[in-house]
Design goal:
Chain lengths: ~475, ~450
């Protein structure tokens, strides 16, 4: 392990984080708020970042897969730790762990909050919350590599470790340029949503905040009641559409922009995703038809909730905790499934589910035809056995860790539903769970230990397990 | 002597045995090899199956003292020795390299009446592990159950012994229990005396107690830093034995091997080692696996050329201890001149083992030679004798003996009642001692041979 270079890259990324804190500070100042909490945070973060960067100037440039994973894991934890500083200094939070939870929830685009009175917070702090979603959605290291191309070769390993999905492909030959293209698409879509929301009647501040939260598939709102607070069907529809847009693999947009629409629509994952969404909306609409006046209302609410959960955003317009069990179960299953690979969403990702399904199918087939040789395909191309193996392993780790962490959260002695869904919603980066942590609830009442464990779950889920697990591997820490 | 199978080891042993005045007959199945060997060496060559009675009789089995079976096949070697024994050959040596037989060696020896079973790969692995335990030294040989070591190192610019006569620096080192035994300079080797001047680049052999040698290295400023991480290229048989040795010493090992199936076998046998499937000659892979963090680098691929080049790469990456395997001796000097000090050769290691046995057999009546190492590129030998009561000049102080010793002979260390004595002028030889003698030329068979006749 090349610790020196890891430290140096960490330093640079922290400097970048300090720079990103300038934006919420200016927003706050625009509304006449004091910049002191941000100034303090920027000073501390920049100082640490600068020290790390200059202290390890002489690092040699050998940087490979394990350094990539290790760095990404480390940086995400540190990003949470330093990003929590503005919350800590603003005085609206009780404890540093709360701030850390909130920040991690932001960067991992979970949207689980410990706040009860969101409206009372200063505008700058609210903006920072949403901004963390936007930054975390595409990945802080993707941003770093896009802005700091001089990292050179190493960026390749960083992006591979940070970007969601089992199959990593570049859009263009250069990693830094790939990042730049992705960020442009991301920024463009976000601004488009801002425009739509503004036209639909939101003020600029709320429009920006909600757009950033949608873009990152986060789910922090500027209102305690989330999107329901606006009571506007138009806004709900706009957000539903954008949530789905942001949970599609971004390379599909790249294909569309470059005129390869046919190729884009051929994607197995996209078709699977759309089928699941359509199926879930229909079932839930039917299931909740008696609870609302008209079918169109049920349809709108079902669509919003389904989009919110499968994209792992976590906005709410209806208290689905009160829905029938079938709908609730379906939503929990959707939390596991998650968005498409290569999007900003969390969960296990549709492509993985698809690969697992096809692998299982092959397994059954091999019982009938023991000597059959079958290749598992995705988008028509055969998948390497190695990918299938990693995917299977990923699934097992996901389930295993979910249960392990549920055991720890179980110490708090909340209901079974609360305990299990709080972990599922965090590891899948959704936000709301059921019962105490449901759409109208929050994570405030959980113990500090649970909050730490859930923060851990969020980072695990966002980075898709491996980078964080690498941090705990003894061989990663050895220099040899 | 009959040597069955004249491959690399067989030919080397034949060459050395002929040089020591033994009559050697080579038996091999291949016409081509027998022809080649008879052109190279002054031996008799017979084409035929070495485990057939007729062939062995034709090779003169009736009045043969030693049969050495070094064919490609372990089973054939064992069978050959068995037949030899049946024909009345008193001593048989078989080469057995199959890993799964390693636990059976003692049983095989007893049941088939084989005098010695040699395993070149195992012997090489043991030699490498010994080198890793003494990272400062280019070579290490041990005597008297490890109480005495013979260690070689290269003189570097700035060492306090560099460009000084030995007697000038003797004051600094007089209380350190060790002795300068041999010096290899370029292609020459000599036994140093007080007036010898050590120069930069000399390979110097010193003998002494492990502590004494450690202390001397400390004075040289080459503190031995313990080797914990070993990087091995090539997962062949040597690697297998070496991993077993190194894991026992608690080192963490990383192996790069080209063949996926072989990687699996290694991983099955050594769960703690990191086995990497890849081309060990690829610098990209080596740096990804952080070769620079390794304490030792061992190149064991089948190609000497590859071993040499990647060892140079490791040397350049500042790996403190680099060991290269060389199956063809002619690369050893190139490797050394390029900075790779430690070169192992399975062929030479095995030949030395067999030679040692044969010399032991030869003088089983006189002062028994209990160990023999060839040093300084085979230009000198270090031998250990047990002194019997009928040895010459017992009780005579060494300073009086000096004039009687043959040219190029040094009495290096005496072990008496488990006490290591570095000889002074007044030291005497006594019956029951173990004495280590360094000789510039070969041919010493008995302790009495060290004196002028």
């Amino acid at each position: 392990m090349n610790f020196k270079l890891v430290a140096r890259i960490t330093g640079m990324t922290l400097l970048l984080e300090a720079v990103t804190m300038l934006l919420p500070m200016f927003v706050g100042m625009l509304y006449g708020e004091t910049p002191v909490p941000f100034l303090l945070s920027i000073a501390i973060t920049a100082a640490v970042g600068f020290a790390l960067m200059m202290g390890f100037r002489k690092a040699d440039h050998s940087f490979y897969a394990r350094e990539g994973f290790f760095t990404v894991g480390l940086i995400w934890v540190l990003f949470g730790a330093f990003g929590a500083l503005p919350f800590q200094f603003c005085g609206y939070f009780n404890h540093y762990i709360d701030c850390f939870f909130e920040t991690i929830s932001g960067f991992t685009t979970t949207g689980a909050t410990i706040l009860t009175e969101i409206e009372s917070l200063p505008k700058g702090i609210l903006f920072w919350r949403s901004f963390t979603h936007w930054l975390g959605g595409m990945g802080v290291l993707v941003l770093t590599t896009a802005l700091l191309p001089f990292l050179g070769l190493s960026s390749n390993f960083l992006i591979r470790a940070e970007s969601p999905g089992p199959v990593k492909s570049k859009l263009v030959p250069r990693a830094a340029q790939s990042s730049l293209i992705l960020y442009s698409i991301y920024l463009g879509l976000t601004l488009l949503e801002v425009l739509f929301l503004k036209i639909a009647g939101m003020n600029w501040f709320d429009a920006f905040n909600h757009s950033m939260a949608t873009a990152g598939t986060g789910g922090f709102s500027t209102r305690s009641a989330s999107v329901a607070a606006y009571g506007s069907p138009v806004i709900e529809v706009i957000i539903t559409v954008f949530m789905l847009l942001f949970s599609v693999n971004f390379s599909i947009y790249f294909l569309i922009i470059t005129g390869r629409v046919k190729q884009a629509l051929k994607s197995d994952e996209l078709r699977f995703f759309l089928c699941v969404v359509a199926f879930a909306i229909l079932v839930i609409t039917w299931n909740i038809r008696d609870m609302y006046e008209t079918v169109s209302v049920s349809l709108r609410l079902a669509a919003f909730q389904v989009a919110s959960v499968i994209s792992t955003t976590g906005f709410v317009t209806a208290d689905f905790d009160k829905w029938p069990v079938l709908s609730k179960m379906l939503l929990v299953v959707l939390m596991f499934v998650g968005a498409c690979a290569g999007s900003t969403g969390g969960g296990m990702k549709c492509s993985r589910i698809l690969v697992l399904y096809r692998t299982c199918k092959r397994e059954v087939r091999s019982i009938v035809h023991p000597r059959a040789v079958t290749v598992v395909r995705l988008d028509g191309a055969p998948l390497p056995e190695r990918t299938i193996q990693t995917t299977g392993c990923f699934f097992v780790i996901y389930i295993f860790l979910t249960f392990c962490m549920s055991l720890v959260v179980g110490l708090d002695n909340f209901s079974f539903t609360t305990t299990l869904t709080s972990v599922i919603t965090c590891i899948s980066n959704v936000g709301p769970g059921l019962d105490v942590v449901g759409p109208t609830g929050n994570f405030q009442s959980l113990s500090m230990l649970s909050k730490l464990v859930l923060s851990f779950a969020m980072v695990l889920g966002r980075l898709e397990m491996y980078p964080i697990l690498v941090l705990f591997s003894r061989s990663a820490w050895s220099r040899f | 002597m009959i040597i069955a199978g004249a491959g690399k080891v067989g030919a080397t042993v034949a060459e050395q045995l002929t040089a020591e005045g033994h009559d050697v007959t080579i038996v091999d199945l291949s016409e081509e090899i027998t022809t080649r060997r008879s052109n190279q060496l002054d031996v008799m060559c017979i084409k035929g199956n070495c485990s057939s009675r007729e062939t062995l009789l034709e090779a003169g089995a009736v009045d043969t003292d030693v049969l050495i079976a070094t064919t490609e096949s372990d089973e054939l070697n064992l069978l050959c020795c068995y037949c030899g024994h049946r024909l009345g050959i008193p001593h048989t040596v078989a080469r057995v390299r199959e890993i799964s037989y390693i636990d059976e060696i003692e049983t095989l020896k007893r049941d088939l009446n084989i005098t010695m079973i040699v395993n070149p790969e195992h012997a090489t692995a043991v030699e490498i592990s010994r080198m890793l335990r003494f990272p400062n030294a280019a070579n290490v040989d041990t005597f008297a159950r490890g109480q005495v070591e013979l260690v070689a190192f290269h003189v570097q610019q700035g060492d306090f012994i560099c460009d000084h006569a030995i007697m000038d620096v003797s004051r600094r080192i007089q209380n350190v229990p060790f002795l300068f035994c041999a010096v290899e300079r370029g292609s020459e080797a000599f036994i140093p005396n007080g007036r010898s001047v050590l120069k930069q680049g000399d390979k110097v052999y010193i003998a002494g107690t492990p502590n004494g040698i450690h202390e001397f290295f400390h004075m040289l400023g080459r503190q031995a830093h313990k080797i914990r991480r070993a990087f091995i290229i090539g997962g062949g048989r040597i690697c297998f034995y070496l991993l077993a040795e190194l894991e026992r010493l608690g080192m963490s090992c990383k192996v790069v091997e080209k063949d996926a199936a072989r990687c699996r076998t290694l991983s099955e046998a050594f769960p703690r080692a990191t086995i990497i499937h890849g081309d060990g000659t690829d610098p990209e892979l080596l740096s990804e696996e952080r070769i620079s963090a390794a304490d030792a680098f061992i190149a064991l691929t089948n190609r000497d050329e590859d071993n040499l080049i990647i060892s140079l790469y490791a040397h350049q990456e500042k790996v403190p201890k680099v060991v290269a395997k060389s199956s063809h001796q002619n690369y050893t000097s190139i490797a050394r001149s390029a900075g790779v000090e430690s070169v192992v050769s399975p062929k030479l290691t095995t030949a030395a083992q067999i030679l040692q046995l044969i010399r032991g057999i030869q003088n089983s009546k006189g002062n028994t030679m209990t160990a023999l190492y060839r040093i300084a590129s085979n230009q000198a030998e270090a031998m250990q004798f047990r002194v019997t009561s009928d040895a010459r000049f017992l009780g005579t102080p060494l300073k009086e003996l000096r004039s009687r010793l043959r040219e190029g002979i040094l009495i290096a260390v005496i072990v008496r009642n488990n006490e290591v004595i570095i000889p002074q002028g007044s030291t005497t030889l006594e019956a029951g001692d173990e004495v280590i003698v360094v000789a510039k030329d070969s041919g010493i068979i008995d302790l009495d041979d060290i004196y002028q006749s």
